[in-house]
Each structure stands twice: as structure tokens, then as C-alpha cells.
UniProtKB/TrEMBL annotation:
Residues 48-225 form the Helicase ATP-binding domain. This is RNA helicase. GO terms for biological process: maturation of SSU-rRNA from tricistronic rRNA transcript (SSU-rRNA, 5.8S rRNA, LSU-rRNA). The gene is ECM16. Residues 331-510 form the Helicase C-terminal domain. The chain holds residues 275 to 1096 of 1165 of the full protein. It catalyses: ATP + H2O = ADP + phosphate + H(+). Belongs to the DEAD box helicase family. DEAH subfamily. GO terms for molecular function: ATP binding; hydrolase activity; RNA binding; RNA helicase activity. It comes from the Eukaryota. It comes from Lithohypha guttulata.
């Protein structure tokens, strides 16, 4: 190992320099060139010294500065990770998003040249980890699960918690627990006879980080060292809209079209809130921007005409027969509408005066680009969607260079905000909103709501335009809205979700203290914690005045699903072994958000030619698919789910099956994988039940006793979510005015006896229209309904903007139970 990455020869370095033990990495020259431009590389020595001298390091650096790709390599080169190295034990890096874990592992493997095979990823149901692995990228959830096997994380010499600023529940939980593990690793004990330090590096984009530094987390002797790495951010000019239009999707389509037509070279990144919106905008843009090949050939020569500045090296250009700039050419140029004037560009995009005052328009760079545009214009666009439900291989397409002569346009959710840096983006169009799961701990309802992002997020999004060159960001909202309604920072997820998972995990970590003493970066509210404890009590996971884990609770921590579902599984093992197979499959199906493609999602795809017939046929097919799954039992959404999953597992052409029946194939794959995982877990813990498990044993579930077992087990996990028909409830105070449709029949969510408090609000809930119960006659509606969620309101989506907002509380039913089962 003669060479050294910073150009210092091994022999020239002082003996006590910890870098003297570095591992030699041979990188491709092209890779090395790119690396050297990353701001983080200038900080390598400072970072590694901080890691060397401290147990905990917080690294704060701009998005795209190289934290995720470089930090693991710095550690590796310093001898971490390799079994034969100075500091054996893997380097673990956690990501809140699966797509980031996979793509970053791929990238680092590529960069690490001769050691590339030592990089692996592990996400749920997909891993490339082997005995060689030295650098392991994983989701934060995977590392949390590993803690239940090995609380001291002895396999690791360093843990990097990446994207800490995203404040996912899992990341917060990891930081809390790691603040305890790190000192425990240094103490000799029965479990830890050979203490070896565990380095902890918390990485965050340039955002609020004080929550990771407070005293409750890290005691004085572990005070984290803080290293800041500034990014080499180019200037980004931000343009606010003059008015905020509610139909921001239309606005987006228009903006993208104009931007593509007028703007110099550079990719366009569009931030939208979810899959639906992305698909819709994608289909609109495809229709308008992707021209059929024949037309394109016709149009192409006109695109190459240089309109104004003649002193271009014409011979370098492929401009067909035209070699002079005549008046005719100029006219043609007008037609294709090349932006020739700075002012016009700004007018076009409604730059407000404020922006000009800041003097942020980078004129020379743009002018140069305009020349480049004339040299190398685009013929077409390369449209790519990016959202978490997209298959991984399609997600990775954003890193591939777009086809020649096409402009990259990426339509993305939040994923592209800080996790992934898409190369060569120069323009950002930001709708200013994101979709978030919201949870109201008072009413125990959850909803997905499209809401304004924070100022910090808006700034991050804009920043994506300035990675490679000066860029522009168009915000589809006014500066007044931004000032008035955008919070400074996004609230940590832990404040927005129910905490039963968190509480069960914390109790599983065997801290003798109450949960409220757990060192959360931001603690869940007392109400949320109390609700979680109450639910865990109902499920039987905790008991006693201190809420200690019961035997059942301990068992529940072993299953890779939430407490409700593990309760269902354990209930089935103990009480309904005959229906166990089906119940495991049902639990697997309940672990994903929704398996059915939303009906609003199917229409934009066929919109292309505006054939209404096609639309109608599709809707009919959609209806038939749903009817097929709910055929055998009319009154249970659980059985519908189960039937769909069962037919999917039995089908040999799975992708085709999903397409035909409008199922989300990624969700179905996950169900299938979870089902197999659960089966094999139970086979090993309960060998006497092996014979009932497995796809081959799945049979149609029409027998009344099996159906009853399924319902009873399902209810055991939702014991606190049972509603009774209003007109049958003894405490009923209002009489429903003879409803005509099932969805208008009010139900009263029962509050479990020991949860009743004086102020509990008695609000009726109505059957969600997507339920199989919605089609029943009101006369045969069941007395009791076990429901999955209450929904406060469904946000009126822009796609169906004519719908009025539904302000009723809706419940998503699961099954029915008899009073005797309660
Ligand atoms: P940070 O973690 O600080 O946000 P990253 O390490 O993710 O920064 O990114 C550093 C650079 O590496 C970015 O310019 C990004 O575009 C590039 N990069 C990351 N992954 C890939 C990939 N798969 N292919 C090409 N470039 C990549
Ligand atoms: Mg990163």
C-alpha cells in the first residue's frame, strides 16, 4: 500500500497518526475525480480525528456534500469494518428510506473499487449481506430489529445514523437507545467480557440539530463532537408565485411545459406529494411533451438553428443544411421560442421584486447556457417518476444518464429532498406540500393529509437545483403563504404517530425506568404515551402498576409486525390453530397500508386518447375484480383481503395477476414475503403446527367455524376498535334519521370500559365507501364492527376536486364479531 488517498505517502506520516493504518483502496480514476470535488473530502482529516478522539460525533453537512457516500469509506480506509483490519466489526449505516439504503450501497460499492464486494445492503426481505460484508447499509427498522437479538450490537465497530434530520420514529428511537449502548459497550460485564468501543456518528443535513445534543441523551463524558461540512452550493434563484393556486397540479403541468420549452440545459426536478399526483402529472406531460418519433424528426432540424449570437462554431453543430442566419432562420427561431433575454425569462416565471433585490440572478452563467442550448438543444424529454412504491430498479433509473438529446424531468415525492441527489438538476419546481400521516391522539384517528411543508424543507428542495451549477427554483405558492403558513421546521414523526410500537420496543430494551425516562431526542407527548400504554394493556402486553412486559408482551416483541398484528398471530397460535394459516396471511396483508390500486389511480393512465369507452370498461373491470375477492363472504373486509392474498399466492403469473385485478404488486410481494417469514418463524418455535402452515395448505375459507376463528383472532388485535350500531346502542342519544345507504348508518365506537374518561366525545362513525359493507342493505348491517382505522376526513384531492370534502368520521371495517366473542 504505497499510495495514500490524500497524497501523503505512508512513510511520510507520523507514527502516531491513526491514519497510518489505512486500508489501501484502488478507485477508478473517473470515480476519484468526482470524489475530489465533494466538499466532505476536504474535511476527511477533521472528521476522522473527531471520530478517533470521541465516541460520538455529529456531522452536519449540506445535502449532496458527500456524507452518505463518503463517511463509510473514510471509516473503512481507517481500518474499520474489515475482519482482519485494525477495528473489526462492521460499519453500519442506517437510512429512513429503503430506496436510499439500496442505492447508496450500490454507489459505495462502485466507488470502493477493489473492496466493492465488501459493501452490502439489508432492507426488509432483501439483503446482500455476506461473511465478507464490512459496510452495511440498512433501514433504521432493520437495525432496531437487530437490537432484540443483540442489544450491544457486537457485530459492529461503528454505527452511522444517517438522515437524522428527517426525524423518523425509528431513527429517533435508535439515537435514544444508542446513547445507552455506547457507554455499555465500554464497560466490562457478563454480557460484555471483552469491551470494545462502538463509534456513533449522527449525520444530518443543515437543519436544526439541537435535539440530538441535549444532556439527557449524552452525558458530559460522551459529549458529541460536532463537525460541520459546508456544501459547495451554487446560487439558486427562488421565484415565488404571485398567487397560490389550489389546483397546483395544473400549475405544475404548465410550469414544467414552459420550463422545458424555454430553459437552457439542465434537469428539472418536480416535488409533488404522492404517487397519485405523480402518475397524473406524468401522463399529462407524456401526452404533451413526448412527441411521436416521426414528428420529432421533422421538427429536429429547426431546433438547431442559432437564433442570435452568430459567432458560434457552426462547424461543430449538426445544423443540417442551414449555415447562415437569415431573417427566415430568425423567424423559425421565434417559433421554437428560444429564450433570448434575461428579462423575458424572469417575466415568464414571475420573479418578484424581492428576489431581484437580493441580486441572485446569475446572468453570465445563464447567458453561457443559452449558448450551450443553441449548441445542444433537446429533442425530447426523459420523464421519470420517483416514489417509494416504485419497484427498486425503476427508482435507480434517476442515476443513469438520460438518453442523448433528452432533458431529464423527475417527478418525485419527498425522497429527492435530502436522501437522494439526482445528478444534473438545475431547475426545481416545488408544489410546497407533502403528504403526511397525521395522528390525533385525542380522537385516536389517523389520516393522510396533504399539508404545507416547513420552511426548512422548502429550502432543501430549492437547494437541489444548485448542485452542479447555478439554478432556479419555482415555488407554486406566494411568499405571503410561505411566511404565514409554513412552520420553521417539520415536526418529528414521533409527535405525529401512535406510540405503541415505540413503547413496546422501549420496554423490550429492558430499561428498568418508566418509558417517560427514555432518552428520546424528542419525547412523544404524555397523551400519546398514555394511549400507547393503554392499548398495550388491552392487548395484554403489559401489566401491573409499572406496566412491565408480560410473557405475552415478550412474545409480541419477537414478531416483525406491530403489536396489534403480533397479538392476532399469538391469539391464533393459542386459540385457533386450525385457522392459523389463514390468520397469518391476514396479518401479513394487514401489515401493508392498502393492497388495492385506488380507483382514482387507474383513470389518468387511460386518459391519453380521451376514450370514454375505455374508461368505462376499465371501471367495470375494476368493479368485477373487487367483486371476485368479496364474493364468498359478503360481510367481511378481512375475508376480501384474505381472498385476494390467497389467490395471489396461488397464481403463477403474479405480476399479471396484480395487473388484472388492480392490486399493488409491491404490496403483494411484501405480503407474500412476510407470510413466508412468519410461517418459518412459527414452524421453528411451534413445530407441532408445521403441518397446517404454508401456501399449499391454504384453502377457501367458507366454513363458518373457520370464518368465526378468523374474526375472533382479528378482533383480539383490535379489541379497542369495535363499534356498535347506533340504533342498537343503549346509550344512544340521537336517533339516526332512517338512512338509505349503508354508509349513512351511524356506528358508535365503543370505548373500552377502563378507558372511559369524563370528556370522551361520543361521535358517530360511518362505514367507509370502500368497504364491502357499504354495499349491504341497511337492514342486514352487523351489530358490531371491528375497524382498522377511523379517518377524520379524506382530504379532497385535486384529482377529484369536484368532490366536496368529507367531514364525517369514517371507519375502515375489518370484520364483524358477535357479542359473545367480546
Ligand atoms: P449527502 O449524503 O451529503 O447528501 P451523497 O453522499 O448522497 O451526499 O451524494 C454525493 C454525490 O454522489 C452526489 O452528487 C450524488 O449525486 C452522487 N451520487 C450518489 N449516488 C449516486 C449514484 N448511484 N450514481 C451517481 N452518482 C451518485
Ligand atoms: Mg445523504
Amino acid at each position: 500500500a504505497a499510495g495514500y488517498r490524500l497524497g501523503i505517502k505512508e512513510t511520510e506520516r507520523p507514527k502516531d497518526d491513526h491514519r497510518a493504518y489505512s486500508v489501501h483502496v484502488e478507485r477508478a480514476e473517473s470515480i476519484q475525480e468526482i470524489r475530489l470535488q465533494l466538499p466532505i473530502l476536504q474535511k476527511e482529516q477533521e472528521i476522522m480525528e473527531a471520530v478517533h478522539n470521541n465516541t460520538v460525533v455529529v456531522l452536519k453537512g449540506d445535502t449532496g456534500s458527500g456524507k452518505t457516500t463518503q463517511l463509510p469509506q473514510f471509516l473503512f480506509e481507517a481500518g474499520y469494518g474489515d475482519k482482519d483490519g485494525l477495528t473489526p466489526g462492521m460499519i453500519g449505516i442506517t437510512q429512513p428510506r429503503r430506496v436510499a439504503a439500496v442505492s447508496m450501497a450500490k454507489r459505495v460499492a462502485q466507488e470502493l473499487g477493489n473492496h466493492g464486494d465488501k459493501v452490502a445492503h439489508q432492507i426488509r426481505f432483501d439483503t446482500t449481506v455476506s461473511s465478507k460484508t464490512a459496510i452495511k447499509f440498512m433501514t433504521d427498522g432493520v437495525l432496531l430489529r437487530e437490537l432484540s437479538q443483540d442489544l450491544l450490537l457486537k457485530k459492529y465497530s461503528a454505527i452511522i445514523i444517517d438522515e437524522a434530520h428527517e426525524r423518523s420514529v425509528n431513527t429517533d428511537l435508535l439515537i435514544g437507545i444508542l446513547s445507552k449502548i455506547v457507554p455499555a459497550r465500554m464497560k466490562k460485564s457478563e454480557q460484555n467480557p471483552d469491551p470494545k468501543p462502538l463509534k456513533l456518528i449522527i449525520m444530518s443535513a443543515t437543519l436544526n440539530i439541537k435535539d440530538f445534543l441535549h444532556e439527557k441523551l449524552f452525558s458530559t463524558f460522551m459529549r458529541p463532537a460536532l463537525v460541520e461540512a459546508e456544501g459547495r452550493q451554487h446560487r439558486v434563484t427562488t421565484h415565488f408565485a404571485l398567487r397560490s393556486r389550489p389546483d397546483y397540479l395544473e400549475e405544475t403541468v404548465e410550469k414544467v411545459k414552459r420550463a422545458h420549452k424555454k430553459l437552457p440545459r439542465g434537469g428539472i426536478l418536480v416535488f409533488l406529494t404522492g404517487q397519485n399526483e405523480i402518475k397524473y402529472v406524468l401522463s399529462r406531460l407524456r401526452k404533451d411533451l413526448v412527441r411521436p418519433t416521426a414528428k420529432l424528426e421533422e421538427a429536429a432540424p429547426r431546433m438547431h438553428i442559432s437564433a442570435v449570437d452568430t459567432p458560434l462554431e457552426l462547424e461543430d453543430l449538426d445544423i443540417g443544411d442551414i449555415h447562415t442566419t437569415s431573417q427566415e432562420d430568425l423567424d423559425l427561431a421565434d417559433e421554437i421560442d428560444i429564450v433570448t433575454d434575461e428579462e423575458e425569462l424572469d417575466k415568464e416565471f414571475e420573479v418578484s421584486d424581492d428576489d431581484d433585490e437580493e441580486g441572485m440572478v446569475d446572468v453570465p452563467a445563464l447567458r453561457q447556457d443559452k449558448i450551450a442550448l443553441k449548441r445542444d438543444p433537446y429533442d425530447t424529454v426523459h420523464l421519470l417518476p420517483l416514489y417509494s412504491q416504485l419497484p427498486t430498479k425503476d427508482q435507480l433509473r434517476i442515476f443513469e444518464p438520460p438518453p442523448e438529446r433528452s432533458r431529464l424531468i423527475v417527478l418525485s415525492t419527498n425522497v429527492a429532498e435530502t436522501s437522494l441527489t439526482i445528478p444534473n438538476i438545475r431547475y426545481v419546481i416545488d408544489c410546497g406540500r407533502s403528504k403526511e400521516r397525521k395522528f390525533n391522539s385525542e380522537t385516536n384517528t389517523q389520516s393522510f393529509e396533504v399539508d404545507y411543508i416547513s420552511k426548512a424543507s422548502a429550502q432543501q428542495r430549492a437547494g437541489r437545483a444548485g448542485r452542479t451549477a447555478p439554478g432556479h427554483c419555482w415555488r407554486l405558492y406566494s411568499s405571503a403563504i410561505y411566511e404565514q403558513y409554513f412552520p420553521e421546521h417539520t415536526e418529528p414523526e414521533i409527535l405525529r404517530t401512535p406510540a405503541e410500537n415505540v413503547v413496546l420496543s422501549v420496554k423490550g430494551f429492558r430499561f428498568p425506568k418508566p418509558v417517560t425516562d427514555f432518552p428520546f431526542p424528542t419525547a412523544p407527548t404524555r397523551t400519546t404515551l398514555a394511549n400507547a400504554e393503554r392499548l398495550l394493556k388491552h392487548l395484554g402486553a403489559i401489566a401491573g402498576p409499572n406496566g412491565a412486559l408480560t410473557d405475552l408482551g415478550k412474545k409480541m416483541t419477537l414478531y416483525p409486525v406491530n403489536p396489534r398484528l403480533s397479538k392476532i398471530i399469538i391469539h391464533a397460535i393459542e386459540k385457533a390453530p386450525k385457522a392459523l394459516n389463514q390468520i397469518i396471511l391476514l396479518a401479513s396483508a394487514l401489515s401493508v397500508d392498502d393492497i388495492f390500486v385506488n380507483q382514482t389511480q387507474i383513470s389518468p393512465e387511460v386518459d391519453d386518447d380521451g376514450h370514454d369507452d375505455e374508461q368505462d370498461k376499465l371501471k367495470q373491470r375494476y368493479g368485477r375484480a373487487h367483486a371476485l375477492f368479496s364474493r364468498q363472504d359478503k360481510a367481511s373486509d378481512a375475508l376480501k383481503l384474505l381472498t385476494a392474498a390467497q389467490l395471489y399466492l396461488k397464481d403463477s403469473e403474479k405480476d399479471h395477476f396484480c395487473q388484472q385485478f388492480f392490486l399493488r404488486s409491491k404490496a403483494m410481494q411484501e405480503i407474500s414475503q412476510l407470510y413466508s417469514q412468519l410461517c418459518s418463524m412459527i414452524r421453528s418455535t411451534h413445530p407441532h403446527l408445521s403441518h397446517v402452515l404454508g401456501t399449499a395448505q391454504l384453502t377457501e375459507t367458507t366454513k363458518p367455524d373457520v370464518v368465526k376463528s378468523i374474526n375472533t383472532s382479528a378482533a383480539s388485535g383490535y379489541i379497542d376498535q369495535i363499534a356498535i350500531r347506533y340504533d342498537l346502542h343503549p346509550e344512544q342519544s340521537i336517533v339516526a334519521s332512517s338512512p338509505r345507504r349503508a354508509i349513512d348508518v351511524p356506528y358508535f365506537p365503543l370505548i373500552p370500559i377502563n378507558q372511559r374518561t369524563g370528556n370522551s366525545e361520543k361521535r358517530p362513525a360511518f362505514i367507509h365507501p370502500s368497504s364491502v359493507l357499504a354495499k349491504l342493505s341497511t337492514k342486514v348491517l352487523p351489530q358490531y364492527i371491528v375497524y382498522r382505522h377511523l379517518q377524520e376526513r379524506t382530504n379532497s384531492q385535486v384529482l377529484t376536486s369536484s368532490d366536496t370534502e368529507i367531514v364525517k368520521t369514517r371507519m375502515l371495517p375489518l370484520c364483524t364479531v358477535d357479542a359473545t366473542a367480546l
